[in-house]
Amino acid sequence: MDKKISVILSTYNEAPVIEQTISEIFKYVKNAEIILVDDNSPDGTFEKVKKINNPNLKIYSRKSRGLASAFLLGLINSSGDIVGWIDSNMSTLAKKFPEMLDQLKNNDIVILSRYTQGGKDRRSRLRVLSSQIVNYICRLILNNKTKDHTSGIFVMKRTVLQSAVPVGYGHGEFFIEFLYKANKEGLKILEIPYEHPPDIEGMSKTAPNIIRFFKLGFDYFFRIMVTFFRKN
Predict the structure, then answer these.
(1) Do residues 68 and 113 touch, judged by C-beta distance below 8 A?
(2) Angle at CA 49, nearest 5°, toward 97 and 32?
(3) Domains and CATH numbers, the chain
(4) What is the pLDDT along the chain (232 residues), one digit of tens a residue?
(5) How far apart are CA 40 and CA 49, in angstroms?
(6) Phi-psi map region of 110: left, alpha, beta (phi>0 left; psi -120 to 50 alpha)
């Protein structure tokens, strides 16, 4: 594909894995532009990334934290005809980009999905169950055919932003609202199956402790309800 491709990475304490993730993206997406937004990681993530000498790597550091706002900052500073996003600690999935980009020829958004046929989630039972519940509620309340609203690994044509723009607050729940808007506007969304690898010890941002885990669960449910009442 000869179109320019921007891949957004949001990081917080990713020093052990970030170099590998960046390397894998450049390996599988030859003409990639990577926009990395670091939320003031105390483990030296930003300092490590600054040592990478590649003109196609844009780096931003900020004092605030938040996955959705980090994605939006990366999106604003991207220049690609195609925009993608992948978790910074899931470098093994960069090899899926060529297939996703190929499928984008006939679709507007292509998502890696754990819950379409052939997909699988190998994380802890609690995280798998909570993810399945959230996605079931999404389909039930939003009357949406999308099976995996919380994957967060996707590519899209930049023209999607003419119809649906991500709202930059919250954690991964912003993607639920974004997909709902895209579906409502009649954009073509394709889900490609993938296997979510087991959590890397100490790397999960979603469930570092049980209190944060349930708080995020409430945030997801609240965002679904906000999306529902905004739909008209």
Answers:
(1) no
(2) 30
(3) 5-230 (3.90.550.10)
(4) 578 999 999 999 999 999 999 999 999 998 899 999 999 999 999 999 999 999 999 999 999 888 999 999 999 999 999 999 999 999 999 999 999 999 999 999 999 999 999 999 999 888 888 889 889 988 998 888 899 999 989 999 999 999 999 887 777 788 989 999 999 999 999 999 999 998 764 445 554 455 666 677 777 777 888 887 775 4
(5) 12
(6) beta
CB 61 within 8 A of CB 46: yes
HEC letters along the chain: CCCCEEEEEEECCCCCCHHHHHHHHHHHCCCEEEEEEECCCCCCHHHHHHCCCCCCEEEEECCCCCHHHHHHHHHHCCCCCEEEECCCCCHHHHHHHHHHHHHHHHCCEEEEECCCCCCEECCCHHHHHHHHHHHHHHHHHHCCCCCCCCCCCEEEEHHHHHCCCCCCCCCCCHHHHHHHHHHHCCCCEEEEECEECCCCCCCCCCCCCHHHHHHHHHHHHHHHHHHHHHCC
Q: Are 11 and 18 in contact (CB under 8 A)?
A: yes
Question: Identity (one letter) of the amino acid at 230?
Answer: R
Q: How far is CA 166 from CA 91, 130, 139, in A?
A: 24, 23, 19
pTM here is 0.88
Tokens of 227: 């999306």
